[in-house]
Amino acid sequence: MDKIHGNAVQALSCVQSGHTLMVGGFGLIGAPLTLIDGLAEIDVTDLTVISNNLGEAGRGLGVLLRQGKIQKAIGSYFTSNREVGDYYQKGEIELQLLPQGTLSESMRAGGAGIGGYYTKTGVGTELAKGKEEREIDGVKYVFEPAIRANIALIKAHKADTLGNLIYYKTARNFNPLMATAADVVIAEVDEIVEQGELSPEEIVTPHLFVDKIIKAKKILTKAGVVSCE
């Protein structure tokens, strides 16, 4: 099956209103900026977005926030975009805050077929309210359910034509975890090479996890987000 798509809008044809999306990135680093721009062009609403944060004001996922397409966000660092607080105070978005390690482990559990797990993180805080608690060997733990999504939008450095992925330094962040925990995985990459050009030792995400690939039209440099068209 040919996984390579010519543009973001075409690749995102499977996204529907009400879907839950995982979106990679830490701030704008490792975020699939071209795919996010594609979402901005599609008529979808009431999305639940699982991401570390919601981009920055008017950039990355911040674009979708301004469009009112995000009904709920699950993440760990929403203050990277100050507008998120404004929308929350006005009742225009629902937020679920998770500690960053808990967010990662919940996605890993979702990808591994684990229903949930117990963690000490958050015990005795507001984040544990309403959650099951259990004492193990005299220590209190809180239960965290696994997280999965309908679709994951991820960013990688290179893909081969099969869909094997490698990442670039810290831009890797949450992307490999998300690739295992969604029904459909769409990868935005800087470069596409022929099958066999990637060493098996450097492949992080095997092609079996990847359904669609697009070439990035936007990249993040020290000077900011620039077009690479």
Automatic annotation (TrEMBL):
Keywords: Transferase
Keyword Glycoprotein: no
SMART domains, per the entry: CoA_trans
InterPro entries the record matches: 3-oxoacid_CoA-transf_A, CoA_trans_fam_I, NagB/RpiA_transferase-like
Parts of the chain that traverse the membrane: none
Pfam families linked: CoA_trans
The protein's name: Succinyl-CoA:3-ketoacid-coenzyme A transferase subunit A
